[in-house]
Amino acid sequence: MLLATALLLLAPAAAEQPAAAPTPAPAEKLICKKSLETGSLVKARKTCLTAKQWRLAQESASNTALRMQSENSRLEGTN
Asked: Region (Disordered): which ranges (predicted)?
């Protein structure tokens, strides 16, 4: 009887489930874009990035283009 009472007292503690871990913040939504591959009219490449990654890629491309233009303008007068 003492054993049965001890089991009844311990059962609620064993039945308690551990607290669920907090769910992580959802990942940023991916934005997928298709672009034609150079030299092909039908072959496309799909690229998926977050909005922040697309913005950084655009800024990098713009900076590269500006740098190439400024370097080219300096070299034009040296022929």
From this structure: 60-79
Alpha-carbon distance of 30 to 50, in angstroms, equals 5
Full-prediction pTM beyond 0.85?
no
User: Which residues, including other chains, have CB under 8 Å from residue 32's CB and lie 6 or more apart?
Assistant: 46, 47, 48
Q: Which residues, in sequence order, are bridge partners of residue 32?
A: 48
* Structure tokens given for 72: 């080219």
Give all strands (DSSP E) within 15-62, no chain letters.
Answer: 30-36, 44-50
